[in-house]
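Data card: per-record layout.
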Amino acid sequence: MATIRQFQPPKMLLRIYSLIVLGLDLVTLFIGIWFAVILAVYRTFRPPTMKIIHGEVAMVIGAGRGVGKEIAIQLAQLGVIVACVDLNMESCQTTVNKALQLSGSARSYTCDITNEKQVEDIVQAIRIELGEVTMLFHCCGVPSPRTLTQNSQEIRQTMDISILSHFWLLNSILPSMQRMGKGHIIVLSSVAGLSGGTSRGARIPLSTAQFAVQGFAESLQTELRHSNNNIMVTLVHVYPFIIGAEAAKDIRFRIPSYFGTMQANEAAKQILDGVRRNYTEFSVPGYLLYLGHILRILPKKVSFMLRDLLDTGVDFA
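The structure for this 317-residue chain is written out next.
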């Protein structure tokens, strides 16, 4: 009885076929890249329409002062129900009172976000009193070391506030966002996450933490883009030497007209504009994000030379 042999194409045909498939994939990739670049340039001149966030429930971490305070107040003015969270109960209540004076809806909560149990309890309390959290703003500032050496407690505090707190908040809030099929997580990062420390007081723990925050946001974006939900993740690079007039004594400028200070309320407005346009990453001010990327591409010696020329810095985040 004759056996039937299965036809096997020659190896040359298989190689040609694989090359054709690879060529088509590369063409598709290049077309996609150019389309994305063209769209990005177009969006520079014609930004996306800002989404309506009226009725959303926003949890603002660090709402007692600075940019976090201004974000909470402006969210309330936009019709958002704001849960103001801060370790300082008095300053947090001051933010709430200001929001209520402007006919907004806000409530204060005291929480140590480095404590996982406290985070769980606060999120549960917000869920019961205000509803499910649909927007999360992490605006905590961390005092940066002024010297190269630190004790272990200061280093641990920097890491706990800057990094670990994100995971405790995510564990408590993300599951409900996934069930609802919507949400927006906004992560604020210092400029130290783009360019590292300055030559005067290296701030190694802070820079390390901010690099980690950037990695956290990018990893979360990658994870969520493969799931069938409508959860946005926005990474905002906030340049510390332009935030808040109260920081003037700690700020130095080589070119004041180019790197001028910015009031916290204006910075908060720019942040909310970018969030409402669903940007995945941007900076305040916007052009400095591209400057940071350019510094990373250039040889390290050139990067140091440019930083020395600008001689711009700040002694805290």
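Known properties of this structure: Strands lie at 57-61, 81-86, 105-110, 135-138, 183-190, 231-238, 251-252, 281-284, 313-314. The first strand starts at residue 57 and ends at 61.

See the next section for split statistics.
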